[in-house]
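Render this sequence as a predicted structure.
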Amino acid sequence: MSVPRAADFLFAGDIMLRRQFLLAFALMLTAAPALAQNAAQPGSIAAGQVIAEERCARCHAIAATGDSPFPEAPPFRELQKKYPIEQLAEALAEGIAVGHPDMPEFVLQPAEIEDFIAFLNSLQPPR
């Protein structure tokens, strides 16, 4: 009795089954680079914008133009003038308690921080 080999399964049997297997394998190979690229991106700008809209827009200008509704809250597009954006991650994880006098304290989860930082970076002028 011989032990079946992987090639026996691949090349034996119905031709339609082989075609389906090869098509699925080809799709997997073409999708792999796109999946890897998405996994390598540090955060979602769109998800970060949602966080800003839900938690920050009441006081801060969160767009590329416009004034903050609360005058003491800096527009997000100008944050890099006061803080290195990437260094805000630790404060966001621990809870920002002092931003402007009336700013509520809140804490973001690691994935939310990545998204929020990506959104903030998208507002900054090119260096």
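Summary. Residues 97 and 105 are 5 Å apart (CA to CA). Residues 21-26, 34-40 have pLDDT under 50 and may be disordered.
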